[in-house]
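Figure 2 data, in text form.
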Amino acid sequence: MHVRPPLIFIAPFVIGLALAHIWPLPQLPRTAGFLLGALFAVPAIVLYVAAQVTLHRSCTTMLPEGRPRVLVVTGPFRRTRNPLYLALLLLYTGVALVTGALWSLALLPAVAVWLHYSVVKREEWRLAQLFGEEYTRYCCTVPRWW
């Protein structure tokens, strides 16, 4: 079953909020949670916007099910093959810290695994089919995550 990326992030976050009502965890001090969260959220937003701008300038899609016109290897795609998903993982972390949603934060590894196997691996297969050797070379020089 194919699940769209927003649900991969939203569902575990909401489950974490529900778990917090059933089994509350100790809370971070509000200021510490805010500052730690900002350390993740601000770079996440910058990375996400930079990746979107790069895709827009390349006149290609950012939709996982869309058909890319070109293999984008500039901007943040020079450093990571998945800057949009990396940004979302960082943002998830930041929001969990800012809001004190520690159960949601505890579910982050499950989010990453779910994202990897249900979206990233599928996209990698599609890109390999579309771009062949060019994509293989890209994979050899740019890490999947960072």
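Caption note: Residues 30-141 form one domain.
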